[in-house]
Amino acid sequence: MSGFPQLRLRRLRRSEALRSLIRETEVNVGDLIYPLFVVEGNKMKQEISSMPGLYRLSSDLLSGEVEEIASLGIPAIILFGIPQKKDEVGSSAYHPKGVVQQAIRAIKKATPELLVITDVCLCEYTSHGHCGVVVDGYVDNDKTLELLAKTALSHTEAGADMVAPSDMMDGRVKAIRQALDGNGFQNIPILAYAAKYASAFYGPFREAAESAPQFGDRRSYQMDPPNWREALREVEQDIAEGADIVMVKPALPYLDVIRKVRDTFNYPLAAYSVSGEYAMIKAAAQQNWLDERGVVLEMLTAIKRAGADIIISYYAKEAARWL
């Protein structure tokens, strides 16, 4: 009695009500984090050409943006800062009145209930565009740790609810955890970019954040795309150092890695649907080659089905309305 015609799997697909009743994976607005790019100055709203519909905003324009985000039910944003001045050691990243620090205060004043997560990296702040201190043409891992810890601490002192190191230096989670704990911030969680690949999908972000490397690339510290066993080692190390949430980045081309991490670790898992994923869909939708709404919701569902609990997405606002 186990085969056709008695067994008809299509019976439960006949209507939306039936499909909804047995649906295995659902994306909720509460799963989403929306990225924001902030710049110094006043009345600044700069369109990002490679990411249609997204803008770099100055802090004085953030209140309306974050109020809209909160009204859609999106629980959190992640901040990326673009300073006016850059130097060899990214000093604007950890300045008490830096662009992100000012943005945190403005957001918390406008929407205190919205979770503010900050990206902790130096690439937007260094004159050379790399994620750490460069010594003799090479990013010096250990010299960078102190600056990352200072950056995370300054964000937390400004009011950040969570910090997210994205630099891929060895030991940075431990350094940040020690800095936070040593200054009375034991309750601030760390969202670690644990498995961040040296991906070709980051191009539009580098325009948005003005963070392209001035020489070489980031392959000596970001992960090699063919590797997944290494990703498990990276995640394991970040957990051991004190990460509260771990992340795989990018999301869509690395669904297999998301699944491997989910099956291996019983930890909250985030995935970052990156700028290249957004830009490709936007470009195709503008040509009427794709149903934008359908593709985005299918993509988000695939990321959730692979095992992600949290999805960082530039489509978060639109997805919240569609959901």
Secondary structure elements and pairings:
Layout: H1 16-21, E1 32-39, E2 45-47, E3 55-58, H2 62-71, E4 76-82, H3 99-110, E5 115-120, E6 134-135, E7 138-139, H4 141-158, E8 162-165, H5 172-182, E9 191-196, H6 203-209, H7 229-241, E10 245-249, H8 255-264, E11 269-273, H9 275-286, H10 292-306, E12 310-313, H11 316-322
Parallel strand pairs: 1-3, 1-4, 1-12, 4-5, 5-8, 9-10, 10-11, 11-12
Antiparallel strand pairs: 2-3, 6-7
Distance from N terminus to C terminus (CA atoms, Å) equals 39 Å
Q: Class of one domain in CATH?
A: Alpha Beta
Question: What share of the residues does DSSP label as strand, in percent?
Answer: 15-25%
Q: What's the main sheet like?
A: 10 strands, mixed
Task: Choose one word for the global shape.
Answer: globular
CATH fold type of one domain:
TIM Barrel
Structure annotation, total helices: 11
As a whole number of angstroms, the C-alpha radius of gyration is 20 Å
Flag low-confidence runs: none
Number of strands: 12
Helix percentage: 25-40%
Question: What is the annotated CATH architecture of one domain?
Answer: Alpha-Beta Barrel
**What does the average pLDDT come to?**
95
Query: Could you name the CATH homologous superfamily of one domain?
Result: Aldolase class I
| Helix/strand structural class | alpha/beta
